[in-house]
Amino acid sequence: MSPEGRGIARAHLPAGAGGEAFRILHVSTGNVCRSPITERLTRHALAHRLGVTAAPELIVESAGTWGHEGAPMEANAAAVLADFGADASGFTGRELLDEHVIRADLVLTATRDHRAQVISMGHSAGLRTFTLKEFTRLVRAIDPATLPPLDDGVAERARALVRAAAALRGWLLAPDADADEVYDPYGAPITFFRSIGEEIHQALDPVVTALTGVAANR
């Protein structure tokens, strides 16, 4: 199993200033298509950019609002991950629980409905819950120079990024109603899964760059 496939979706990152790990939770409906793709692509990107060490500062997980508990991800979702060189092995679906939201430092959802469902669970989740594309849009507007350097720890940088994004949310609105949605490919042919995978990959790229301070190799 590759590094990003071990444990409970951990990305092992360089040690910084220490402190508690930062947890990212990806949420969709069944936790067999969109959120598994997003979880594993996030882990793959983090491991690729920052390498593997003994200091797990970021933990990346996923769950579904109507999660198929214990189910494998859809075969087409696994095929999409293979296209990107990401590890699909060892995945099992989970139903979204209060404890997942309570522990998460950042919740990224596939759609606005998912975001609303997470926020409705309480636990002061509003300031740390965004759709994936919403968070991408906000992150693009944040000056990286205002974030703590990676030497201070990737978890500290990530927490500062979430605070900055939350502060911007009311000022940087979506251009249209569909701009923040990642549509469900469940039951669709592999071509649609691949288009959704590319959509997710493009949305994640600036997020991972902002989290790590390391741009993808082009």
UniProtKB/TrEMBL annotation:
Organism domain of life: Bacteria
Pfam families: LMWPc
Protein name per Swiss-Prot or TrEMBL: Protein-tyrosine-phosphatase
Phosphotyrosine protein phosphatase I domain mapped to chain residues: 22-210
